[in-house]
Design brief:
A hairpin with a 2-residue loop joins β5 and β6 (105-109). The chain is of the alpha+beta class. The chain has a four-stranded antiparallel beta sheet, with no helix packed on it. A four-stranded mixed beta sheet has the order 2-8-7-4, with no helix packed on it. 53% of the residues lie in helices and 22% in strands.
Length: 238
């Protein structure tokens, strides 16, 4: 009877151990599956390419506007779906064309004449595993300094005063020459008037002689005609 009692009391202990082992194996399998999923997710995340370098760099202050944007990635990005945009504070875009992909590098040309101010590069490319990745890079362009014109020379410049004092005698000589020419013209005026008066008197005298010459010629012609007529009459009478 004692042995029977021992046998009946050992049955519950074996059942409990079996149940505990089953629960432990299930928990272990669950942990293994969860760990595998975490490892797979981590490896997938590590497979995506990453941006390793850029020009302009993030937060860089440039003294002059850039001519292009250059991005470098950890792997060779795909040419499908690459976009590079450069925005200013007003939302204007400054890219001059489509980005060019060369292995791990992406280059985008920019429009000339970018004014000073804050800008942001917004990029999106396809990673080597086909997964799209994107990001933004802020940078600043310093405003151009205004150009200053050279100051005009002051009126108290010694060189100006010397040129003024040098030119003064020249103007006095010109005044003297002008006065002498006026005196010469005044002296020549009476002589010219006298010669004009003589010329007018001579002309008027010649004009007064013209009628007398015409009268004398007329008388001579009339006498000649009368003599010719008399000669013809005598010839006719004879």
């Amino acid at each position: 009877m004692h042995s029977t009692t021992l046998h009946t009391t050992s049955l519950p202990t074996t059942s409990v151990l079996t149940t505990s082992l089953r629960v432990s194996w299930r928990a272990l399998l669950t942990l293994l599956v969860a760990g595998a999923m975490l490892l797979g997710a981590g490896s997938a995340a590590q497979a995506h390419d990453q941006l390793t370098d850029s020009s302009p760099a993030a937060g860089e202050e440039l003294s002059s506007p850039p001519s292009e944007v250059h991005l470098t990635f950890s792997g060779e990005v795909l040419e499908l779906g690459a976009v590079v945009t450069v925005l200013d504070d007003d939302g204007g875009t400054w890219e001059a064309g489509e980005p060019v992909i060369d292995g791990q590098s992406v280059t985008a040309p920019l429009t000339e004449g970018m004014p000073g101010g804050a800008y942001e590069i917004q990029w999106r490319v396809s990673s080597s595993d086909g997964h799209p990745i994107s990001g933004s890079i802020p940078f600043t362009v310093e405003a151009a300094e205004p150009t200053t014109e050279p100051a005009a020379p002051s009126s108290s410049d010694p060189a100006t005063e010397e040129s003024t004092s040098t030119e003064a005698p020249v103007s006095e000589d010109a005044d003297n020459e002008s006065s002498e020419s006026e005196v010469a013209q005044t002296t020549e005026a009476p002589e010219t008037a006298a010669s004009d008066a003589e010329t007018e008197s001579t002309t008027s005298g010649d004009d007064s002689d013209v009628p007398w010459v015409a009268i004398v010629l007329g008388v001579v012609v009339l006498i000649g005609l009368g003599a010719l007529a008399a000669v013809r009459r005598r010839g006719t009478d004879s």
